[in-house]
Write a structure and sequence with these properties.
The chain is of the alpha/beta class. The protein has a single domain, classed as Nitrilase/N-carbamoyl-D-aminoacid amidohydrolase, CATH 3.60.110.10. Helices cover 24% and strands 27% of the residues. The chain is built from 5 helices and 14 strands. A 6-stranded mixed β-sheet has the order 6-5-4-3-1-14, with helices on one face. The protein has a 5-stranded mixed β-sheet with strand order 7-8-9-10-13, with helices on one face. A hairpin with a 2-residue loop joins strand 7 and strand 8. Helix 1 runs parallel beside helix 2. The radius of gyration is 18 Å and the shape is globular. The termini are far apart.
C-alpha cells in the first residue's frame, strides 16, 4: 500500500487551504491510497479558522477522490484538538487528543479527549493518536489489546531538536505492539510569533524496523508480507492485578 505523509510548512490560513487541495489531490493522482497531514497543519496554535471552513475543504477533497483515505491531521473544534479522517466525502472517524501538552498551554486551549478511537478501512483496523499521546504506551497498548489494531497513525507538531525522542517513541510503540506506526510531523511554521522547525516523518513496521523512503513523504507498506512475529503482544500478555511496593 502506498502512503503519503505530508512534509507541511504552515503558512497563513488562506494559503494553507489552497495548498492542501493541491497537495492532497496531487498525492492521490500519484497513486497514494492513504494521505496524512500533521497536527494543526492549517492553523498552528495561533491562526483562527472556523472548523466548518476546514470541513468544507476536507469534504471537497475526499469527494473528488473517493477511494483514497485522508487523515487531515487535526483541527481545533468544540474545545478539542481533533484528528479527522475522511473517505468518499464524509468523515469516517474523529479522535480528540487525550494527552494534552502542558508546555504549549494546550490545557488552556482544549479539553481532554475522553476515549481512544480506532476505525476499520479495507482489511485494516487503524488506531488514532496525536503527538504527545505517543509518550503514553498504555494508549497504544489499549488500541492493540482491546481494539486489535493493525496500525497507528500519529499526526504531530514536534520540534526538530527532539526528533530523536519522537522517532524513538514511535519505534517503541511499533515494536512493543507488533503493528505499523506512521508518524506525520509538521515540517515547519512560518508566521509571526510562531516560527517553528518540526521533526521528521517516520514509519515503522511491526518489528520496529524503519520503512525507508526516498523523499520523506511516500512510503510503501508491504501488508501482504509483514515481518514474522517475535513476541505476540496479545497472546503473551499477562495481566497483573496488583503492584507490590516493598518498604525498607
Amino acid at each position: 500500500m502506498k502512503v503519503y505523509l505530508s512534509r507541511w510548512v504552515c503558512l497563513g490560513v488562506e494559503d494553507n487551504l489552497r495548498r492542501v487541495r493541491h497537495e492532497a489531490l496531487g498525492a492521490a493522482a500519484a497513486g497514494a491510497e492513504m494521505v496524512v497531514f500533521p497536527e494543526l497543519f492549517l492553523t498552528g496554535y495561533s491562526r483562527p479558522l472556523e472548523p466548518s471552513c476546514a470541513r468544507e475543504v476536507f469534504s471537497e477533497i475526499s469527494t473528488a477522490v473517493p477511494n483514497v483515505l485522508f487523515v487531515f491531521g487535526s483541527i481545533s473544534e468544540a474545545r478539542h484538538n481533533r484528528v479527522t479522517v475522511w473517505l468518499g466525502g464524509r468523515e469516517l472517524a474523529a479522535y480528540d487528543k487525550v494527552h494534552l501538552f502542558s508546555p504549549n498551554g494546550e490545557h488552556e486551549m482544549w479539553d481532554v479527549g475522553r476515549s481512544y478511537v480506532a476505525f476499520e478501512w479495507r482489511d485494516l483496523r487503524v488506531g488514532l493518536m496525536n503527538c504527545n499521546d505517543v509518550r503514553f504506551p498504555e494508549q497504544a497498548r489499549a488500541l492493540k489489546l482491546e481494539a486489535r489494531c493493525d496500525a497507528l497513525i500519529v499526526p504531530a507538531w514536534w520540534p526538530s531538536r527532539r526528533d530523536h525522542i519522537w522517532s524513538t517513541l514511535l519505534q517503541a510503540r511499533a515494536a512493543e505492539n507488533e503493528l505499523w506506526v506512521l508518524g506525520c510531523c509538521i515540517a515547519g511554521s512560518v508566521w509571526p510569533d510562531e516560527e517553528f522547525a518540526g521533526a521528521g516523518n517516520h514509519v515503522f513496521d511491526p518489528a520496529g524496523e524503519a520503512v525507508r523512503t526516498a523523499d520523506d513523504r511516500t512510503y510503501e507498506l508491504d501488508l501482504e508480507n509483514p515481518p514474522p512475529t517475535i513476541v505476540d503482544p496479545v497472546e503473551h500478555f499477562v495481566k497483573i492485578d496488583r503492584v507490590d511496593v516493598i518498604k525498607s
